[in-house]
Amino acid sequence: MARTVIIGAGQAGRRTAEALRDLDPEAEILLLGEEAHPPYDRPPLSKAVLLGKDPGNGLFVRAPDFYAGKRITLRTGTRVEALDLAAKQVVTAAGERIGYDSLVLATGARARPLPVPGADDPRVHTLRTLEDAQAIQAALLSKPRLAVIGGGLIGLEVASSARQLGCSVTVLEAADRLMARCVPPAISDMAAALHRGHGVALHLGRTVRRIEPRPDRLLLDAGDVQVEADLVVIGIGGIPNTALAEAAGLAVRDGILTDACGRTSHLDVYAAGEVARFDHPFFGRQVRLEAWQVAQNQPAAVARAICGQAQPYDEIPWHWTDQFTWNLQVFGTPDPELELIRRPAGEDRLTAIAVDAGGRARGAVLINNGREATPVRRLIGAGKALDLAALRDPAVPLRQFL
Amino acid sequence: MAEWHRVAALSDLSLEAPLGVRIGDLQIAVVKLEDGVYAINDVCTHEYALLSEGFCEEGRIECPLHQACFDIRTGKALNEPAEVDVATYPVKVEDGAVFVQVP
Question: What is the fold, at CATH topology level, of the domain defined by A113-234?
C-alpha cells in the first residue's frame, strides 16, 4: 500500500488528501500540520473572525470526524524538521522518521515582516493564522485607533472590518494606488473612494520607516506623514515556506518550483498550494499564486500526478475580496497596460473587462456582480477577438459574445 | 401549518432569471425553467450570499460570491465550497400567479 505524506495541514494539504482519497481508496494518507488545529480555510480570518461573527463552515470546512472517516491520518501540532529524500523519510521535531512513497509539500506561506524599528512591539500584528486573527479581534474590542500598513487585500479587509467595528482606521500604502498587484488603476481609484467614503484615512505612496512605541500609543513615521495609533496591522504580502525544500536541495525560487502538475525537481516529491511556483498554461510562465482557488484546486492536479494520471492545473485565475459594501472578484490578468472596458450594471455594480490589442479578453473585474462570473470566465477562456464597440455598450448582454 | 404565498405573477418571470422574494424571515429564489417554476432557499449554504444574484443556466444556479452551484430542481449542492444542499419549496401556478408553500 503506497503511503503519501503531506506536510502542511492547511487548505492545500487538506485538498491534496481529499483528492488523493477520491482517486485511490487504498492509499495510506498522512497529513502533518504544525498548527494545533485541523485544517481551516483562511479567507474568513480577516472578515468574519475579526468581526466576531460565526464563520459557519467557511473556516473549518470539515467536521472533526471527517478525517478518520476518510482514513486520512491527521496529526496536528507536528513540526517537520527535515526531509531525507535519499531515504524517502521526513524527520519530525520529535526525531521521529516517517517513510513515504510520495511526499507533498503544502507548507504555505507566512506573513512578510516589515523590516523597520519598532515592528516587534506587541501592539504590532500580522494576520496569517487563526490565533493572529483572534488576537487582533480581541484588540479591536476596545475600539483602538488602528493603523494598517499595506493597502492590499488583507490590509483593506482588516481596515473594512475595523471600521465596521467603530475603530478609527488609517491605511498607509507604499505604492501610489490600492491593490496594485491585482486590479487595474481605475478599480484602485474606486476602492480608494469606497474606503474614504467609509471614513478610512488613506495615505498612498507612503512608506513607513519606523514605528516608535510609546507606553500609551504607537507613532508611525512615513516621512511627511505621521500617524498615531494604538494598534498596527501589517499586511504586505507573504513569503513562501520553502526552508525544508531548500535544505533538501529541491529547486526553489520564491516558491518550490514545479511543473504544471505540481512535480518538483525531485522524483516523488510534489508541492501544493501557495508554496508552489508552477508552470501555468494561462500565464505561459511559472507563477506562485496566493489564492483560495489555487489551494482548493491545484492539489487535485498533485493527487492525479501521484496516481500516475498527470494532467496540468490550468484554471483561469480567480480571487475575491469583500470590503465594506463590495464583493470584488478578479479573473484572469487584468493588467494595467490592457484596455479596461467598463460595463456599469447599476448602483455600486460593475463588470470591467480587460482586453488586449487583439481585442481578446484577458482579465475581468466584477464589483458586486458575481452573476457575470461564469460569462467573464468563458469570455477569457475562449480567447477570441471581441466586437469592442458592442462590448462597450453595457446594454448588450455578455452572453451575446459567448 | 404549511401555507401558500403568492410571490409573483408568472409574467414577471423569465427563463433562468431568478427572482429573490421574501416570505416572513425566509429568503427564497424563484426560478422559471423550461419544465416549470421552482423555489429554493435563496441563501447559499457556504457563506451568506443570495443565490438569486447569481448566474443561472441548465437548471443550475451559481452563488455570486464563491461559485458554488446548486441544482434548482432538487436543491442539491453540486460543487465546493458548498457542502450542504439548499431547501426546496413546493410551487404552484394558478391564474397566472406563482405561489410558494413554506413550512
Answer: FAD/NAD(P)-binding domain (3.50.50)
Q: Is the pTM for the entire model greater than 0.80?
A: yes
The reply to whether residue A373 touches residue B67, judged by beta carbons under 8 angstroms, is yes
Tell which residue, B44, B2, B47, has the closest CA to residue B27.
B44
In chain B, where the domains are located: 3-102
Q: Domain limits of chain A? A: 3-110+238-306, 113-234, 325-401
Quick one: which H or E segment has residue A245?
helix A243-247
A373–chain B Cβ distance below 8 A for any pair: yes
Interchain CB contact of A375 with B (< 8 Å): yes
**Which residue from A minimizes the CA distance to B80?**
A296
Peptide bond between residue B81 and the one before it cis (omega within 30 degrees of 0): yes
E-strand stretches of A307-371: 318-323, 326-332, 339-344, 350-355, 361-367
Distance between CA atoms of B61 and B16, rounded to whole angstroms? Answer: 9
Return the residue in B48, B56, B60, B67 with the most chain A beta carbons within 10 A, the one to mutate for interface testing: B67
Q: Which of residues 286-325 of A touch B (CB under 8 A)?
A: 296, 318, 320, 322
CATH, domain range A3-110+238-306? 3.50.50.60
CATH number of the structural domain A325-401: 3.30.390.30
A3-110+238-306 and A325-401 have identical folds: no
pLDDT tens digits, one per residue of A314-373? 999 999 999 999 999 999 999 999 999 999 999 899 999 999 999 999 999 999 999 999
Which CATH number describes the domain made up of B3-102? Answer: 2.102.10.10
Q: Where are the beta strands (DSSP E) in A144-246?
A: 145-149, 168-173, 201-204, 210-214, 217-222, 225-229, 231-234, 238-240
Chain B residues in contact with A61 by the CB 8 A cut-off are 81, 83
Q: How far apart are CA A309 and CA A328, in angstroms?
A: 35
Nearest CA in chain B to A374: B55
CB-CB under 8 Å, A327 with B64 = yes
pLDDT tens, position by position, A230-275? 999 999 999 999 999 999 999 999 999 999 999 999 999 999 999 9
CB contact under 8 A, B46 and A57: yes
**Interface contact flag, A370 B65, Cβ < 8 Å:** yes
